């Protein structure tokens, strides 16, 4: 495949900046060269197939999907890419980013006790395909990813959707829907990684674009595209890596759905969807005694955050960007005060999310007038990882320099922790 002939597709994936497109083409050429060196196939061989699976940004609906709630999310330009060749019976993954090299027999897909990370997720994906009655087969793959790891932009879901898309294209003639692949990814995380995630991450990575997703019917989530371009408003969506990952925080992450569901069970439901804030208020003394105050507050967050997703989507559709930004601020405040996923309980000396939010709020206060508002919030699972901010384009360079300095980053110290995000219209795909 001649990567240089894919300029139009690359502009959809990575934007129209000529320098960025050139960097991406060089990146793909380096990937195929690495594949060739590892597996002995010519980098120009027609048998090598290329895939791309994006990370995602959550814009509204913080911790609602696992209780069948609503989210506002988008796929982003950061992605995992793979060079792949079909083979029989064994999946061999060579990962340049994480310096991993492992094989899994497609016949050996039961969970291995104590197995973690990428190999566990791969085994879970294989088993998920089998459980759903789909075909599986082997392949060689060389992967590389620029999706920030353990930071709330879903590097794991990007990887899962990459694997699912490869198996879908190689062995199922594309028969699986986005929702099918997303559910298999969720199964792998829940069962093989002990992470009680909902379907937000996988669905947003697989779908592409800016979307609302309603998980009321989890087997058939309702996905609606929102045709909105932040750049036409003179704003940029920013992600700041706080410097602390959340790969080892599965227990804290899982406590949120578990506590929300404890409230639902007390009210004779499996999840909070279908209940209301009034149900909480009407049973408050008993709920506080049985489930605890934090669980009650987290349930309250669910109901108000669900409503905010509708309000934010309506604001974008009405081109009322100021109202949208108010929703972003309200979402951040609710996550901080009610959901309480800003810092890890018991570790007051480590609060990177809170520090970055405080810095950003002060920047907004001192730099943004009422006629040019801005907003910020915790992003994704929380506790550690990244924050999200919507900053006027005219202030992006100043905000970036301000956060770089505050976080101790200097030129030459690797990638800046401040990312300017763009939304890509395509989810996990084969490059053709």
Structure description:
This protein has two domains: 3-226, Ribosomal Protein S5, domain 2 (2-Layer Sandwich), CATH 3.30.230; 230-421, 2-Layer Sandwich (Alpha-Beta Plaits), CATH 3.30.70. It is 43% helix and 19% strand. The protein has helices spanning 7-14, 18-39, 117-131, 155-171, 178-192, 200-207, 250-266, 277-282, 284-291, 293-317, 321-339, 352-367, 396-406; strands spanning 49-60, 70-87, 90-95, 100-105, 138-145, 210-214, 222-225, 235-241, 375-378, 386-392, 418-421, 429-431. Strands 1, 2, 3, 4, 5, 6, 7 and 12 form an eight-stranded mixed beta sheet that branches. The protein has a four-stranded antiparallel beta sheet with strand order 9-10-8-11. The radius of gyration is 21 Å and the shape is globular. The termini are close together. The relative contact order is 0.15. The model has no long low-confidence stretch (mean pLDDT 94).
């Amino acid at each position: 495949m001649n990567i240089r002939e894919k300029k139009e597709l690359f502009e959809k994936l990575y934007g129209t900046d000529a320098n960025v497109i050139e960097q991406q083409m060089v990146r793909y050429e380096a990937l195929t060269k690495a594949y060739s060196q590892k597996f002995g196939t010519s980098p120009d061989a027609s048998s090598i197939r290329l895939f791309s699976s994006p990370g995602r940004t959550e814009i509204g609906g913080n911790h609602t999907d696992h209780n069948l709630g609503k989210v506002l999310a988008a796929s982003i330009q950061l992605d995992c890419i793979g060079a792949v060749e079909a083979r029989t019976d064994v999946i061999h993954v060579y990962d340049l980013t994480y310096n991993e090299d492992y094989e899994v027999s497609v016949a050996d897909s039961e969970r291995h006790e104590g197995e973690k990370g990428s190999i566990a997720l791969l085994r879970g994906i294989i088993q998920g395909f089998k459980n759903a009655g789909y075909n599986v087969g082997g392949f060689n793959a060389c992967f590389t990813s620029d999706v920030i790891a353990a930071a709330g932009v879903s590097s794991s879901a990007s990887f899962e959707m990459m694997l699912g898309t490869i198996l879908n294209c190689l062995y199922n003639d594309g028969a699986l829907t986005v929702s099918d692949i997303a559910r298999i990814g969720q199964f792998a995380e829940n069962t093989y990684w002990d992470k009680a995630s909902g379907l937000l991450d996988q669905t947003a990575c697989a779908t592409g674009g800016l979307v609302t997703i309603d998980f009321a019917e989890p087997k058939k989530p309702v996905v609606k595209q929102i045709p909105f371009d932040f750049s036409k408003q003179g704003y940029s969506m920013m992600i700041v890596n706080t410097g602390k990952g959340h790969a080892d925080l599965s227990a804290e992450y899982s406590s949120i759905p578990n506590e929300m569901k404890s409230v639902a069970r007390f009210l004779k439901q499996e999840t909070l969807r279908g209940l209301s804030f009034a149900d909480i208020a009407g049973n408050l003394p008993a709920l506080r005694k049985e489930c605890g105050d934090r669980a009650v507050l987290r349930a309250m967050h669910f109901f108000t955050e669900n409503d905010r997703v509708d309000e934010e989507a309506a604001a974008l559709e009405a081109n009322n960007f100021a109202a949208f930004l108010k929703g972003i601020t309200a979402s951040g405040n609710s996550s901080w005060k009610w959901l309480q996923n800003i810092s890890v309980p018991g570790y007051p000396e480590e609060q990177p999310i809170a520090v970055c939010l405080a810095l950003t709020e002060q920047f907004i206060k001192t730099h943004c007038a009422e006629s040019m508002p801005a907003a910020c919030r915790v992003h994704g699972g929380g506790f550690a990882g990244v924050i999200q901010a919507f900053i006027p384009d005219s202030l992006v360079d100043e905000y970036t320099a301000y956060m770089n300095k505050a976080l101790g980053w200097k030129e030459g110290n690797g990638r800046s922790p401040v990312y300017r995000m763009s939304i890509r219209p395509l989810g996990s795909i084969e490059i053709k």
